[in-house]
């Protein structure tokens, strides 16, 4: 025992707990979790849309020539990133890089406010949480949102005790950058303003600093405000979102830890553990040191208030509630949980709940790597089958937008079209006119076609698309069918014309 204690003392002397070197294994773990199987699943619609927008010029993206219903920053950065390559892995590596970069930022915040234990616990959480791993492997904006939200918090913490205005001005720039990435950063700015006014109401230096940060942010985002208003109205009136249930903000807290990687049978347990940990953490905060307490209440407000705000907007104005959009609150959420881990009370149930959380994290990560992702249908495999079996003069018709863009990314060697005359489509026709080849009726597609490949998403077939399928079967004879079983299956049907005149026309062409 004496020898073991002596070794611990020597190790502590060489590598004290407040040494930044302890962050290195956490960053390496995060990188390993995010790089493993990063290219395993096909790109799905949202990722293919990110790729398509990133292929435009930065000026076109910035001026909103394409209507992506998203701010422009992520797609502009992805545009330059794809200069290094635009494979599935390359597209997703931008998100991976952003996700890894957010870890030292959160470590710095936790260390500065609460000590090195909280910094390490927070960074470890961010490294292993399935939500962070999942979106670090997607060609979407959410990992960039997490990074920018973390930078906003870091700059706010630095500005809080600063004597000069420079940190506040940098904070304003960071808020503007966040707004150009996701509009929900506005709720973060709103909570920060409330904190400045309520935490120390007589400190006019802080009020003036926050006022300057707001001014800088407003000046920088002014060119985007009209587009933000238009896109928000489009989402609230024409998007596929519906009004959230009263329990949705509670479900969001679980989603921000696990995404949808938890096995179905374990979801109730994950929800219980999430709520129990949060309840006990709030109790711990109420008994914490006064110096720590104000920051913990701020981070709790940053975690809970944005979902509540958007929930209210969704019911009063129009649906705008989407769980993954609250990635903006995950840095504050991780800081609260990291502080709770660093201040565990062993005579309370909290340690057992965090052990259960660790078990659920491992279970969810294993399920993520080994199971089928319900959002990512096997478009790569379906496209490869089409490449191997297509002939000169063939054409591909997509009855649903979910398959059209992924197939465009995988470049099938035949003409590909989207039949976009669905009156219930949430995507405006102008978007598809910009995105690629689009036809408005089946008649203009089938003329002079001898062989047709029709791509169907069976789970997304409505009555309108079923009628289109019957119309095709009336003019063409089904020759072959290829199917891929999945949560969201794909079916490719090969049709040949029964009209001799059409076959002769195709051979001549």
Q: What is the terminal separation in angstroms?
A: 87 Å
The count of strands amounts to 6
Helix content estimate:
55-70%
What summary fits the major beta sheet?
6 strands, mixed
Strand order within the widest sheet? 3-2-1-4-6-5
Mean pLDDT: 88
Tell me the fraction of residues in β-strands, as a range: 5-15%
- Estimated structural class: alpha/beta
Assembly type:
single chain
- Count, helices: 23
Number of domains: 2
- Spans of at least 5 consecutive residues whose pLDDT stays below 50 are 501-509
Identify the overall geometry.
globular
Q: SSE order, as H and E?
A: HHHHHHHHHHHHHHHHHHEHEHEHEHEEH
Would you mind describing this structure in some detail?
- It is built from 23 helices and six strands.
- With 509 residues, it is α/β, with parallel strands linked by helices.
- It folds into two domains: 20-370, no CATH class; 379-508, 3-Layer(aba) Sandwich (Rossmann fold).
- Strands 3-2-1-4-6-5 form a six-stranded mixed sheet.
- Helix 6 (88-114) packs antiparallel against helix 8 and helix 7 (116-128) crosses helix 16 (330-342).
- The longest helix has 35 residues, at 204-238.
- The radius of gyration is 26 Å and the shape is globular.
- The N and C termini lie far apart (87 Å).
- The model is unreliable at 501-509 (pLDDT under 50).
């Amino acid at each position: 025992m004496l020898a073991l204690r002596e070794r611990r003392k020597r190790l502590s002397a060489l590598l004290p707990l407040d040494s930044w070197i302890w962050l290195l294994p956490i960053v390496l773990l995060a990188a390993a979790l995010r790089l493993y199987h990063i290219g395993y699943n096909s790109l799905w619609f949202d990722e293919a849309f990110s790729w398509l927008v990133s292929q435009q010029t930065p000026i076109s993206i910035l001026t909103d020539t394409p209507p992506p219903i998203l701010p422009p920053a992520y797609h502009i950065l992805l545009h330059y990133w794809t200069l290094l390559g635009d494979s599935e892995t390359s597209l997703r590596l931008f998100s991976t890089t952003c996700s890894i970069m957010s870890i030292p930022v959160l470590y710095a915040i936790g260390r500065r406010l609460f000590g090195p234990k909280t910094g390490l616990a927070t960074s470890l959480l961010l490294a292993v949480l399935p939500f962070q791993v999942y979106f670090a492997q997607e060609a979407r904006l959410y990992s960039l949102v997490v990074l920018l939200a973390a930078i906003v918090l870091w700059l706010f913490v630095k500005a809080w005790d600063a004597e000069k205005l420079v940190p506040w001005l940098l904070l304003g720039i960071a808020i503007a950058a966040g707004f150009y990435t996701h509009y929900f950063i506005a709720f973060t700015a709103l909570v920060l303003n409330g904190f400045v006014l309520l935490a120390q109401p007589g400190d006019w230096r802080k009020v003036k600093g926050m006022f300057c940060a707001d001014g800088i942010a407003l000046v920088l985002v002014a060119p985007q405000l009209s587009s933000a208003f238009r896109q928000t109205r489009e989402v609230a009136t024409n998007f596929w979102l519906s009004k959230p249930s009263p329990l949705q903000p509670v479900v969001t807290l679980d989603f921000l830890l696990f995404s949808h990687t938890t096995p179905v049978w374990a979801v109730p347990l994950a929800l219980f553990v999430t709520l129990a940990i949060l309840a006990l953490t709030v109790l711990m905060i109420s008994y914490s040191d006064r110096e720590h307490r104000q920051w913990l209440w701020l981070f709790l407000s940053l975690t809970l208030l944005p979902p509540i705000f958007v929930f209210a907007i969704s019911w009063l104005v129009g649906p705008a509630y989407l769980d993954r959009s609250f990635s903006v609150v995950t840095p504050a959420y991780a800081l609260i949980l990291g502080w709770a881990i660093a201040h565990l009370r062993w005579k309370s149930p909290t340690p057992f709940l965090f052990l259960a959380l660790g078990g659920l994290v491992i279970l969810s990560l294993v399920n993520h790597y080994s199971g089928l992702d319900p959002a990512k249908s096997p478009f790569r495999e379906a496209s490869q089958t089409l490449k191997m079996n297509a002939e000169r003069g063939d054409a591909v018709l997509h009855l649903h937008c979910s398959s059209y863009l992924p197939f465009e990314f995988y470049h099938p060697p035949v003409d590909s079209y989207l039949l976009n005359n669905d009156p219930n489509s949430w995507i405006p026709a102008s978007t598809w006119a910009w995105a690629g080849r689009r036809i408005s009726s089946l008649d203009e597609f089938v003329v002079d076609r001898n062989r047709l490949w029709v791509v169907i998403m069976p789970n997304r077939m409505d009555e309108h698309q079923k009628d289109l399928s019957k119309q095709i079967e009336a003019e063409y004879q089904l020759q072959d069918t290829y199917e891929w079983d999945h949560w969201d299956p794909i079916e490719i049907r090969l049709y040949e014309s029964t009209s001799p005149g059409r076959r002769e026309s195709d051979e001549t062409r």
